[in-house]
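pinning this so it doesn't scroll away 📌
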Amino acid sequence: MSAITDLQQLTNEQLAALAAEKVMGWRVRRETFQEDQDMHFGTGHETTFTDWVDSTGTFQMSVTDYMPCTDRNQSGRLLAKMVERGVSFLITRCVEGDPLGEDIEVSIPNHHGYCVTKSDARAETIASLLAWFAMEKQ
């Protein structure tokens, strides 16, 4: 199986977690707070927050809010992060015989390129991850 096929088989949630960790360099932070008194429950209860934080521990986004496969702003940040590392992305038609399709051509320095079919947020997330994995192998 190819790297593209492997990534395409992952769920949006799995791709989001990989992108956050690999491309953005974030890690998960879970914090549990003990409430002393609660208006609704009468006694204290625990509340747990699961967030993405950067290398300094600074909050970036809630894990449940980070969905680059469906959010073009978030997938665009992934592409921008990889452009900073020298990767170029081109929206083009790189699949022969697909007159209506737009695809993402990924060009990685000192490496062969990739063509990711479609040009939606999920495709941008996959393109960013392909570039990250290829650059890590160098």
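📌 and the second one:
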Amino acid sequence: MTRRIYIASALHHAKAAHLLACDLAVAGVEVVSTWHEKTDTVETEAGLPKTTQLAIAEQCLAEVDQASHLVWLHGDAEGRCGAAVEFGYALARGVHCICVDLTGSQQWAPSVFGTLGINMSRALCVALLTSSRVLA
């Protein structure tokens, strides 16, 4: 099975999402999310017409539809965060979902995503490292 990854996160975590997308691409994994390649900020996006905001949301959900896996980079002070909608939408559609903690409050599992340096919860690490179904 080819892995097609959608990376979900709050807009202010776009740099972390972009770095993960780059690392995944180098590893030969297809990333279907595109929001992290744009230069929008929370402020500029909030100033867009509602129809444009809706089109952005619809594009994100269409990209989730293409994914076999969703990785939610969840951080502190999420505020307005479409990633929660994308995560729930993916779960409802049977997409494999992984939630990664960016707050630094959890233990790091060094071998899971190589040198990214993303903090992950112990339960997630166990699931990723012991279950062939999680990343199948």
